């Protein structure tokens, strides 16, 4: 399992209720308990899916004053980001929401905000993902990588001064100078390939056509002299007339080749919206499973639930890429678009990963999220998915698809192959 790629969409798993609907504070400490550490909650705004995620797993502070200074620093850094976006084009860009400094109860097992180590790591990785999304959006808007706005996203919290200690001036840092990235050197962050592929030119005879409306017009076939073949290396048609996505196909039983207009930006956006809606809903489902697992006393069971949840997040990330890359006219994008109800979502998943996945995908109990395939498939899922000898049933091949998407990060060539496999399962 590639743990380094498990948390690509982890911030989506932290989607919670709006911060205005719940206080950004821990429950009060028990009576008589001395507060040993202070912290504050932050409801961070993620610009790519326009959701908020509450973070309260950050390192605590020894004093209330140190906590207030760190809170003020983060609030000022976020205000600069918000002011920039509102002055550029995004007038509705909301700021992060900061709770007051209070006693840190995340280490108290009896507290509702108690965080075990895996859950703490989950939140911290989600916060880092959100900061990367904000940085990416700033770079796309031509903000230099060494600007004050981007540096403010990663500033260390101010240290608590020691009043009785001697005042020493630190030596200057002799490290290497910071390399500045020019916005003009950056590449587009979109994952879709917008290059124009090569197109085959076809010379077709004229046929009789029937026009709707007034008079019937018959177009008589006129013999045409064969055109000389173009020299090798020259494009068969002008670049402006090439179809950007797929080659035009000719039905051998007809004489006229159907034409297909190039997909426009709206079609690409439609596939992205379908993927975003489905993945966000299912990521929230996994977050609910993780919350329910906090009540389980068996640590081994909780660990298996956590690992299965991470695999599900990786699967959703890969499934998002397949939906966006397949285009809005594909069976995969159409199926994701139609999966708006609970029954439709589970049915869509069953078509992809087999009927036995239903109880694991939408579990009634947190432990039911654990999915274990046959050992013959789990040892080499890609080999089972590619099998054409009949050694594996269709259900087993769908289980193999689940494992491939949940435990690997496919390359560009593998994504093209997986798209054909998914289309086969959806027919």
Give a description of the structure.
With 427 residues, the chain is mainly alpha-helical. The chain folds into 2 domains: 3-161, no CATH class; 267-426, no CATH class. It contains 13 helices and 5 strands. The chain has helices at 10-13, 64-88, 117-140, 148-151, 265-293, 299-326, 331-338, 342-353, 358-361, 375-378, 381-386, 394-407, 412-426, and strands at residues 38-39, 42-46, 51-55, 97-98, 102-103. The strands form 2 sheets. A 3-stranded antiparallel β-sheet has the order 3-2-4, covered by helices on one side. Strands 1-5 form a two-stranded antiparallel sheet. A hairpin with a 4-residue loop joins β2 and β3 (51-55). α5 (265-293) runs antiparallel to α6 (299-326) and α5 crosses α7 (331-338). The chain starts with 9 loop residues before the first helix and ends with a helix. Residues 1-21, 162-166, 211-223 and 228-263 have low confidence and may be disordered.
Shape: globular
Helix-strand topology string: HEEEHEEHHHHHHHHHHH
Mean pLDDT: 75
Q: Biggest β-sheet, characterized?
A: 3 strands, antiparallel
Intertermini distance: 30 Å
Q: How many domains is the backbone divided into?
A: 2
Low-confidence stretches: 1-21, 162-166, 211-223, 228-263
Oligomer: single chain
> How many helices?
13
Strand arrangement, major sheet: 3-2-4
By helix and strand content, what is the structural category? mainly alpha
The radius of gyration over CA amounts to 28 Å
- % residues in beta strands: under 5%
Percentage of residues in helical conformation: 40-55%
How many strands? 5
